[in-house]
Specification:
Oligomer: single chain
Radius of gyration: 30 Å
Bound molecules: adenosine-5'-diphosphate, magnesium ion
Shape: globular
Strand order of the largest sheet: 12-13-11-14-15-10-16
Helix content: 25-40%
Structural class: alpha/beta
Number of strands: 22
Strand content: 15-25%
Largest sheet: 7 strands, parallel
Number of helices: 22
């Protein structure tokens, strides 16, 4: 099997350069990958109905004999129709094909075929448009349906898969060792592959699926656990004494119970009294739950113990904001906080790095610039990453490598579904901030269609006149337009048509960090009433006086992103609103917007998001350390997921780098699955 991943798809019969490109597009550049391109669904061809009683407008199988050679008719636009009459001995049916001259050689007069398609038309003249078909003698009981792409039909794919099976070695090796297969009642890989593509019965299909899902989850777990074992160095050399009461007493507000609990859990974890390893903890909390103060409390205690801490954020704006709020919290305690981003000037940076190395800077806040070479700490004991779903596992471990077994705190802004947390952070301890600071009001959310946009503007106007501020998220989609142009045009439209007397600012990804900062600062100081922006405002920046979030083309965003955007408002004590504008008709988009109107519970939203989009999209493809899965569904296959996780741990306990010959197949698969993932691949 492994070597089939080296065989190019062109080596298959019937696959030339042009088709090879299309196969690549579907994710099958090699014969091995093609065998792992599982059907999207199946058609049951096993019970053909008589033509007379076949259902209307529902795909169904018909067994019938061709009455005459397909007749060719040319119609407008260079289209050619092929019509052919077939009979099941009692009733007749007309089949129609378009632009396919091969039909005349594929359908022979007097031969019997199985046709699969929808019957339309009246009592007298029943028709089937472009059915799938196969000679009756060789027809499968269940036919696979593949994800198609222009120029590559399900049938072409199915034929290529048939040829691919001819290249499988016999007997073929199975990456899952025999003994393990027996123990968990899993079928052999060969059986699984044959039956996932061309199942003989629905039962066989089920058996094949279970085996392939298990295998995929096992390989995923092995890969993730191995990546994690690199992040987690076991023995803690930094016992931390609790100074949190001192920190809390200096806070301008009193911490929520959830914040107190999270801080206590983490400090206990770092105390060295419970166990000997360094802390690896995830703090999950909805937007606005006050994660920054939790991180600050921990940094404070670490620093009061004479050590250093660092916090890494995904964007400059966010790093800046963290630096601001952390120094507000910590400077009064005599702590030196510094900010390091890509835009810090060379001379200033040199000085900063020097002071960091000498331990004069005790808390370094920054972007991924922190993990670059030349950044050295004197005694780094705590690393914090914010908005973690934007960082790869590998980046997090690079940060940890700046210290010696430092404690690690991961702050997740988008709550991660519990199921997914179990898989990705299987070995992280979790604290949950399930309580918002007092005085927060629920955010009213409305989904409207664009004809009501002007009314929404009226609503904005009312609030602006009272001195409040609003965000508007663009862009509108227009062909050939970039985000910047869209934001500019939108702001212009507002200025000329609706808000000539209102100060409007714009923010987009093409602006320099300095420019963005300047605009954000103006907005934070209420010098701008409306901020028209791309999703760059998504993360973190806190403006309590902003009370309306209006999102154009809301269907373009995933649930978690919408929730995150909505979290920009409702940060003060005033009633806030979120207006989602969308003309989308498709069911999934409508469902998403409905969920947004129904709930503001970040955990529920995350669960729904995962359900609607799948884990690959949820994490924004593989760059975040989770590869796309082909067959397993993490919401539905929880039981297999748990099993796979347990088995993976068992395997790694005996053979931590999968070097035993018996694990060679699994090792190859881990590499295969993770090849696109992460900055440092597995080896
Ligand atoms: P998030 O969890 O989304 O990162 P932040 O840490 O940015 O939330 O906190 C949101 C806002 O709430 C900040 O302005 C912060 O100062 C404030 N805040 C945090 N904790 C409390 C609290 N216990 N009481 C009142 N305000 C708080
Ligand atoms: Mg935050």
């Amino acid at each position: 099997m492994a070597s089939l991943f080296e065989k190019k798809i062109q080596e298959l019969k019937g696959v030339g350069e042009k088709r090879a490109k299309l196969f690549c597009k579907l994710g099958a550049p090699t014969v091995g990958a093609l065998l792992r391109l599982y059907p999207r669904s199946y058609e049951d061809w096993s019970h053909p109905s008589p033509i007379a009683s076949a259902p209307h407008d529902v795909p169904c199988p018909i067994k019938a004999t061709v009455l005459h050679r397909p007749k060719e008719t040319r119609i407008r636009n260079g289209m050619t129709l092929y019509k052919v009459a077939v009979t099941d001995g009692i009733s007749d049916l007309t089949l129609t094909f378009f632009n396919n001259p091969y039909i005349q050689t594929l359908l022979m007069e007097g031969q019997e075929y199985l046709f699969y398609g929808k019957i339309t038309g009246g009592f007298l003249r029943r028709e089937m448009l472009v059915p799938e078909f196969c000679p009756a003698s060789t027809a499968p009981a269940i036919a696979p349906v593949y994800r198609q792409t222009e120029g590559l039909s399900s049938r072409i794919i199915s034929n290529a898969v048939k040829h691919a099976f001819e290249l499988l070695p016999d007997p073929m090796k199975d990456p899952i060792p025999d003994e393990m297969r027996q123990q968990y009642g899993l079928c052999h890989l060969r059986f699984a592959l044959e039956n996932i593509h061309f199942p003989h019965t629905m039962e066989d299909l089920g058996v094949a699926k279970t085996r392939l899902i298990f295998e995929e989850l096992l390989v995923l777990q092995l890969g993730l656990l191995r990546l994690k074992s690199r992040t987690r160095k076991d023995i803690s050399i930094h016992p931390i004494e609790d100074h949190s009461e001192e920190f809390f007493s200096l806070l301008p507000f009193s911490p929520t119970n959830a914040q107190r609990k999270a801080v206590a859990e983490a400090l206990e974890d770092m105390s060295g009294k419970l166990h000997s390893h360094s802390m690896s903890r995830l703090v999950q909390g909805d937007v606005g739950s006050g994660k920054t103060a939790v991180a600050a409390a921990l940094c404070h205690s670490v620093i009061k113990n004479g050590m250093q801490a660092t916090l890494m954020a995904p964007t400059e704006i966010l790093a800046q904001q963290h630096a601001n709020s952390l120094s507000e919290f910590l400077t009064p305690c005599g702590i030196q906080v510094a900010l390091l981003t890509g835009s810090v000037k060379a001379t200033k940076k040199r000085l900063l790095l020097e002071q960091l190395k000498q331990g004069k800077i005790q808390l370094l806040v920054g972007t991924h610039a922190i993990i670059s070479d030349g950044v050295e700490f004197q005694n780094l004991a705590l690393v914090v990453t914010d908005e973690q779903h934007r960082f790869g596992v590998a980046q997090r471990s690079a940060l940890a490598a700046k210290g010696e077994n430092p404690h690690m705190l991961v702050m997740s802004a988008t709550p991660i579904p519990r199921t997914l947390a179990l898989m990705i952070y299987g070995d992280l301890d979790v604290s949950v901030l399930d309580e918002l600071p007092p005085g927060r009001q629920a955010i009213d959310t409305y989904a409207i269609r664009s004809p009501r946009r002007e009314r929404a503007f009226g609503f904005l106007r009312k609030h602006i006149d009272q001195g409040y501020q609003c965000y508007i998220i663009c862009p509108l989609i227009e062909e050939g337009q970039n985000d910047m142009a869209s934001v500019q045009e939108y702001a212009e439209m507002l200025r000329t048509r609706f808000f000539p007397d209102v100060s409007i600012g714009i923010l987009h990804g093409k602006m320099k960090p300095k420019e963005k900062e300047a605009v954000m600062k103006q907005f934070a100081q209420n010098e701008l009433s409306i901020l028209v922006s791309t999703t760059v405002v998504e993360v973190g920046v806190d403006v309590p006086n902003a009370v309306i979030m209006l999102i154009e083309n809301a269907e373009r965003y995933g649930l978690s992103q919408l929730h995150q955007l909505r979290g920009r408002v409702g940060r003060g004590s005033v009633k806030s609103s979120c207006i989602l504008i969308s003309d989308a008709q498709n069911e999934e988009a409508v469902a998403r917007l409905k969920i947004m109107c129904q709930t503001s519970d970040g955990f529920r939203i995350a669960d729904e998001d995962l359900r609607l989009r799948g884990p690959g999209d949820f994490f924004g493809t593989n760059q975040h350390g989770v590869p796309d899965l082909k067959i397993a569904n993490m919401m539905e296959d929880m039981e297999l997921l748990r099993q796979a996780q347990a088995v993976a741990k068992e395997i790694l306990a005996q053979d931590s780098d999968l070097s035993l010959p018996i694990h060679r197949g699994l090792r190859a698969e881990v590499r295969q699955l993770f090849q696109k993932v992460g900055e440092q691949g597995l080896n």
